[in-house]
Amino acid sequence: MNELINKEWKLHTHGLVRVVDLMGGDDAVVQMARCSYGEGTKTVNEDRGLIRYLMRHRHTSPFEGCVVKLHLKMPIFIARQWVRHRTASMNEYSARYSEMRDEFYVPQTDYVQIQSKANKQGSEEAGLDFKTQLDFANYTEYSAQEKYTGYKDSLDQGIAREMARINLPLTVYTEMYWQMNLHNLLHFCSLRSDPHAQREIRDYSDIILHEVIKQWCPLTYEAFMDYVMNADTFSAQEMTILKRKLNPNDDKTIYEMDEYNGLSKREQDEFLKKIGRSV
Amino acid sequence: MNELINKEWKLHTHGLVRVVDLMGGDDAVVQMARCSYGEGTKTVNEDRGLIRYLMRHRHTSPFEGCVVKLHLKMPIFIARQWVRHRTASMNEYSARYSEMRDEFYVPQTDYVQIQSKANKQGSEEAGLDFKTQLDFANYTEYSAQEKYTGYKDSLDQGIAREMARINLPLTVYTEMYWQMNLHNLLHFCSLRSDPHAQREIRDYSDIILHEVIKQWCPLTYEAFMDYVMNADTFSAQEMTILKRKLNPNDDKTIYEMDEYNGLSKREQDEFLKKIGRSV
Amino acid sequence: MNELINKEWKLHTHGLVRVVDLMGGDDAVVQMARCSYGEGTKTVNEDRGLIRYLMRHRHTSPFEGCVVKLHLKMPIFIARQWVRHRTASMNEYSARYSEMRDEFYVPQTDYVQIQSKANKQGSEEAGLDFKTQLDFANYTEYSAQEKYTGYKDSLDQGIAREMARINLPLTVYTEMYWQMNLHNLLHFCSLRSDPHAQREIRDYSDIILHEVIKQWCPLTYEAFMDYVMNADTFSAQEMTILKRKLNPNDDKTIYEMDEYNGLSKREQDEFLKKIGRSV
Amino acid sequence: MNELINKEWKLHTHGLVRVVDLMGGDDAVVQMARCSYGEGTKTVNEDRGLIRYLMRHRHTSPFEGCVVKLHLKMPIFIARQWVRHRTASMNEYSARYSEMRDEFYVPQTDYVQIQSKANKQGSEEAGLDFKTQLDFANYTEYSAQEKYTGYKDSLDQGIAREMARINLPLTVYTEMYWQMNLHNLLHFCSLRSDPHAQREIRDYSDIILHEVIKQWCPLTYEAFMDYVMNADTFSAQEMTILKRKLNPNDDKTIYEMDEYNGLSKREQDEFLKKIGRSV
User: Fold this and answer.
1) What mean pLDDT comes out for the span B177-189?
2) A-B C-beta contacts closer than 8 Å
3) CA distance to partner chain A, nearest, from residue B109 (Å)
4) For an interface test with B, which of C35, C51, C74 has the most B Cβ atoms less than 10 Å from its Cβ?
5) How many other β-carbons are positioned within 10 Å of the β-carbon of residue C156?
6) Virtual CA dihedral for A221, A222, A225, A230, nearest 10 degrees?
7) Is the per-residue pLDDT at B232 higher than 70?
8) ipTM above 0.85, yes or no
9) What's the predicted TM-score (pTM) here?
10) Whose CA is closest to D82, among D226, D196, D183, D188?
11) Do C169 and D165 lie within an 8 Å CB cutoff?
């Protein structure tokens, strides 16, 4: 655990995830849970079983007994998504108090993707030619530099920092100390390491999940991957289909079942994808 | 109360505060408080006395029984301050899902102020000539238009909305449904209608406080103004000075007192200002 | 919606669930969600589809836009479970300020059950003879009356209410105003209408879910039942089994699969139960 | 800080406050605050000044960067007051899962006080004769023992733990792991170390404030005592009186001032008490 403190990961143009402080770990999850049961310490194997049981049955409070404080640097368009998670404690660099630094996000060309048609809030991997990608990256860099020059000019004219900064683009980097307990952090990762999240915030979330949490609380990490990240949920209607298919004496195909045909087209596709069939 | 629903206030370039829905009011505060006391309804005058008592003694839970949902439009640099208040429920317009509109904040010239020296995070009213103010306003408008053109070009090239928007400036307007209970809303206003808040967010907070809350919960509003907004707090050290001055048999001036001289220069100034003396 | 206000349900000895106030409903969920998409009103059928989509994909914030305030009466051993849900606003009757009333919970005989061996925190339906059940109910009633007499005696001797009440049993009724938004309330119901919850709190939760929420937000209720209450989640390991069984060319039985045999005995039983096989 | 871990304080019959884990301290408050200002480390004296500034101006977020986890044992009538503080993480001993222990609160005789007439929710120190006090303490002990015997009998008859425990009195001890950040903990102490809090919970809060926090974060403790616990707040009306009295050329006594006479009798008394005059 001590080895994690001050460990840092860099990403993107100027991005940073650094562990400032930690409290607890797998041991603390177990200890907090055992308070409910009035039990003392057990073997490591029993600890693993208990953590998996807690995760599987959504007994979330013992995971709140672990806390991590991170030092983060990210562009403002990511920070705006980040702070929607309300159960954190944070202190952010103040653009009213201090001058913003000349640090802006510029996407790698392969991050510049075409608007997805299937997913109105996302992008798709193929479809943009390299020149369009490169032009956008260059435009982003040029545009930021130009605006930073404008910002410095405004400051030179005596204009208050809080006003001068309003013309900066959403690519400008901010930094913060950000603290969350493990239960809420896992929930954060379940949303932000999801394929529907914007790729930039997903990169941060992936570091937090697959680096920080994995090293900090390996048993919790394993249970979380098995019971949340790589788990699937089936609706009441889908469960009826599953039960019919998984029990003998029913020779209808899924496609012939009333329950399947009662699903919306979108849900049919989601269902087939979950059970590993091509849509 | 019904008259308030759908009432709206416009401010700045494209700003909006609109009441979407309300729950409770002064009556609900009183009703919730009386549950603790096991008492029924009383006269209006007793209601006023009870609300003032609750406010004075920081009995905050009855004020949580009132809730307001607002429709807000504000530029992103304000939205970033706004969402720091974590006890709200909100849904914001998604720049990943929908195209951003051509709406940007442009400050009136008298909002463009000089950096304050006394208050590192603020600005001061005098000191900038009109031309500098006007130039900044024009630059802000021009700069936004230019970036909006760039944004539309990126979209035309097929670049995903979530990526194209990163070059927009912090002046771009966003909108949201935002809901908070009265206790947390009063706290919000105590911080954001404070002279240290940036003037733009203060304008929103003032509308919420002096228009929405005042009409919605007039007794609570009156008590809040008397016991919070226009109240002052004196530290242990300052209380010693006050007690010595306010009770007979002490002919020392404040400036001669050890307690006063033990304060830091900054606290001395704050103290004198609170008791209405020029610093 | 107005018809729900002041509607009340009685349960157990002196229990009460009464709707004091409501804000929002299915319409408000839809309206709040559409703010993200920048869209206006749609048909009822599209509203239903949207609510089901939000529920299925865990887009929880629009459900926070609905709020209910309830008047509740319950014994203290239930109230202690109740207040573990931290995202509520509440005001409770004060046993320091007011005298406790002569109201105590006495279980019906069929609520008096044997300690479960399988479920260490629960009870089992069969196994206690009627006389034991009746004796316990009578003992509970007698014991409460005796303690209430002791309480009144203490008060008569001038002992402060806050002290006199400490000898009352956990069956004594308290009452409160309790307010929660719909998202958190659904989560409350998912935990407290679960078979693992103690039967007494389940009775309250069932009223809130199947009476209050069902009438208040019928589309949300339907979606919640389909996608949460009657849904099932399968772990990564279980998903592997499902995919093997549901796709052709695999003639192994579940019991022969390595993935099945890798599950703990407890998880094997949970898995079989989910897919409708007897354990 | 390490010295505090596992340190414990015993109080009352079976009460316990034990430090399980800590994160942060005065240093962490300063570090988190400086993130906003973009500044590095400073001298200890500047740290003290910064912490006092943060406390005085209610900049609360840096105090959230410190977290303490406590192991607590307390009777249920205190636990019910305790859990009203919603910003904590906790896990409590489960009376459904495990058998309750034979541990009950019995007040010392001097804790048994007369009902206060001035303060409807409190007690007064003088007025009860020793025999009444002793009789109550004895009754409390006897009553608990009797109920514990009844509890054990119910368990012996096979009745589920979750049901058998309902006849236990509010004096029965429970225990929990309870975690809170420093900002919320100070708020907890400001309410529970207040003279209006019930003496039993005040004893716990005093240990947390004057022992745990004082040793853990001495600079924060000092600032909190000066700017919150021993500070006083004056309403708008009271401030008018203060300003008139503290500035020359006004020879009216407080009692002659319209502002004073405009206060309710209760507020007049509160005002006089604050400025150190007998009511």
Assistant:
1) 98
2) 155
3) 11
4) C35
5) 9
6) 180
7) yes
8) yes
9) 0.96
10) D188
11) no
Please, are residues B64 and C179 in contact by the beta-carbon 8 Å criterion? yes
Tokens 């600079």 sit on residue: D219
Burial of B60 per CB tally in 10 Å (0-12, 13-18, 19+) = middle
Secondary structure element (H or E) that encloses residue B123, with its range: strand B123-124
- Compute the nearest-CA separation of B142 from chain C (Å): 26
pLDDT for B39 beyond 80: no
CA gap A202, A200 in Å, rounded: 5
**Both structure tokens of C188:** 């409350």
Annotated catalytic residue, options D18, D48, D56, D192: D192
Q: What is the DSSP string of C21-85?
A: EEE--HHHHHHHHHHHHT-----HHHHHHHHHHHHHTT--GGGGG-EEEEEEEEEHHHHHHHTT-
Residues 6+ apart with CB under 8 A from A58: none
The structure tokens listed for C279 are 């354990």
CA distance A143 to A130: 20
User: Which chain C residues are closer than 8 Å to D143 by Cβ?
Assistant: 147, 150, 167
Contact between C236 and A226 under an 8 Å Cβ cutoff? The reply is yes
The full set of domains in chain D, from first to last, is 8-93+173-229 (3.30.1360.170), 109-167 (no CATH), 236-274 (no CATH)
Report which secondary-structure segment, H or E, holds A192: helix A182-192
3-state secondary structure of B78: helix
Distance CA D64, CA D69 (A): 14
d(CA A222, CA D80) in angstroms, rounded, equals: 36
User: Which residue is associated with the tokens 């009452």?
Assistant: C175
Measure in Å the smallest separation between the Cα of B6 and chain D Cα atoms.
Answer: 33
Q: What is the mean pLDDT of residues A232-250?
A: 89
* Per-residue confidence (pLDDT) for residue C121, from 0 to 100: 80
User: What token pair was written down for C84?
Assistant: 């573990």
In single-letter form, the type of residue at position D125 comes to E
| Structure confidence at residue C40 (pLDDT) | 66
Q: Do A159 and B116 touch (CB under 8 A)?
A: no
The length of chain A in residues reads 279
* Pick among D233, D253, D260 to test the B interface (most B CBs inside 10 A): D233
**pLDDT (average), residues D20-35:** 95
Phi, psi angle pair for D45, to nearest 5°: -65, -40
Instruction: Round to whole Å and give the CA distance between A85 and A81.
Output: 8
Q: In angstroms, what is the C-alpha Rg of chain A?
A: 24
Q: Do B235 and D231 touch (CB under 8 A)?
A: yes
Q: Are B177 and B168 in contact (CB under 8 A)?
A: no
Q: Rounded to whole angstroms, how far apart are CA atoms C226 and C217?
A: 14
Q: Which two three-digit tokens encode residue D266?
A: 């209760």
